[in-house]
Amino acid sequence: MYPFKPGSFAPKNAWYVIGFAHEIGHALVGRTVVNTPLAIYRKENGELVALNGRCPHRHFPLAKSCLEGDVVRCGYHGFAFGPDGQCVDIPSQEHTPLAYRVQTYPIVEHGMWAWAWVGEAEKADPALLPPLAEIGLEGEGLIGHTMFFHEVECRYQLLNDNLFDLSHLAFLHGTSIGTAENASMPEELVKRPGFVSSMRRIKDAPSPPIMHALGIYPTETIDRAMGMESYLPGFHSGITEVAYPANHPQAPGEPISRNRVYHSITPATPRTCYYHFAVAVDETVNVEQMRTNLAPVIDEDIFASVEIEKMIDLYDGEPPRELMVRSDTNAVEGRRMIQAMMDAEAQG
Ligand code: FES
Ligand SMILES: [Fe+2]
Q1: CA dist list (Å): 344 to 86, 240, 268, 330
Q2: pTM score, whole prediction
Q3: Ligand 2: distance of its center to the CA of 39 in Å?
Q4: Neighbours of ion ligand 2 (CB under 5 A)
Q5: Which tens digit of pLDDT belongs to each residue from 242-269?
Q6: Which of 134, 233, 240, 292 lies at a C-alpha separation of 20 to 30 Å from 321?
Q7: Nearest ligand atom owner, CA of 93
Q8: 287: how many CB neighbours lie within 10 A of its CB?
């Protein structure tokens, strides 16, 4: 399906963020990952569990059922399933066949997130997760803060496309974090297996309106490096580094701030997805002010993506060919690599 080949939706052999780890406790959480229903919870000993979320009796959602200790008791006719997926009780009969069970899925905590894998379990290698040092959560003195979770009514690739092409900052976020240079400055692009990135180094250009008004960027003009490192298929680590311009009389070229932002995009169904947003900043940053500033920015990205989904719907989900320009290079490559992941799965 658009923008992939007909029949291609999302890779299954991938780690996807299904929640902020600290928000998952001893209570059932329902998620759908690439059309796979999950019932997620933390056992009494703190370990995470991801069970298939469809009760195999009459398809009731196990995530809308109850936990009894570490056992999930279906809310419809009371079948009970242990954390290994084994059915351990059927209230209407004495015998519980060993063959009655639900599938379990690999689930890990890594950074601020819980990640699940709904593809072939033997391929669920934790080494495929984004390295914490590489995304700035280790060794840089930055502190992670979770920010927003949204369930979004659009196909996940629209939010990936949004993050692959930051030239939209100049327009969609033109009143907040973007300036014209976010579109006009050439990009430095990097690609390697499972990864693409784009970086723009903007010199002595006007400070973004909100940042300047709040005094976060103290000078009228500023040097900014802004980029996005995308770990396919759905985790994006944004980098911003800000410095005084080289012609500043008191502090030429000196750093002002740097931070990371994390966008996790998880395909749920073909036309819905989850969006988790988090940041990492140093201890001088007012995190609540940042949350207030960034909430409308994320809302603008969601607005654009949902509107595009509605537009695509007018064409039964397969719109006419897009106009491609130079700034689409990163998105074209990112899409190509995600399609290749799906092609590899289809070939087994
Ligand atoms: S649907 Fe779950 S026990 Fe019947
Ligand atoms: Fe955006």
Answers
A1: 31, 34, 20, 21
A2: 0.96
A3: 31
A4: 301
A5: 999 999 999 999 999 999 999 999 999 9
A6: 233
A7: 1
A8: 13
